């Protein structure tokens, strides 16, 4: 049995504020004062003081009256955590090889909350302008690699995601996306054309480590310069790169 860490003395208020912050999760994306009173042995004035402190530090914000959510500031912390993972020295050579083999730009993406984030990229000899750049937060419902990341969500979490994105997706678009996600979840592969950047085609494959989806690798290219044979060969190369990444990331985890 692991020993429990010794409690630091004299920081009870800070501990309580952090405990409140850590209550937020994918299953609990928002909290109310009533939630805090139910889960913590504190008074109403104390609950509001902790909320005021977290708002002052730009860690939470009030979405609707009395309903609090994490602020975008937390995504910066998430990106900092991602940057601390010692995988780039392993990932980058595979992306470089994929870009050289296909002649097109390759990327490695992971999911951070409701966004897809590019963590590493290898440009081709003739790079193109794309929205997915390292550190950019992109929607999960557009683009081959992003949809792979979205496909890992359970039906309940997917419904919550759709609720959060709201009018960004029409009912027909949502129905088409759900159909795509079913196929993507089965095959671990996706293609897209012009979903994020006009005229850009993408091929992406899921990366699993110990049966857990840890990211997606993708190749993007202008659709006009790709024949059917080009697309087929890129798809094979992307799948092979995904297997290589599974091997190296598995050694790091």
UniProtKB/TrEMBL annotation:
* Residue ranges of domain IclR-ED in the record: 73-251
> Sorted alphabetically, which SUPFAM superfamilies does this protein's record hold?
GAF domain-like, Winged helix' DNA-binding domain
**Entry's InterPro entries?**
GAF-like_dom_sf, HTH_MetabolicPath_Reg, Tscrpt_reg_IclR_C, Tscrpt_reg_IclR_N, WH-like_DNA-bd_sf, WH_DNA-bd_sf
Name the Pfam families on file.
HTH_IclR (PF09339), IclR_C (PF01614)
The keyword NADP belongs to this UniProt entry's keyword annotation: no
Q: Has UniProt tagged this entry with the keyword Metal-binding? A: no
| Keyword terms of this UniProt record | DNA-binding, Transcription, Transcription regulation
Where do the HTH iclR-type domain residues begin and end?
11-72
Entry protein name: IclR family transcriptional regulator
According to its UniProt entry, this protein's organism is Microterricola pindariensis
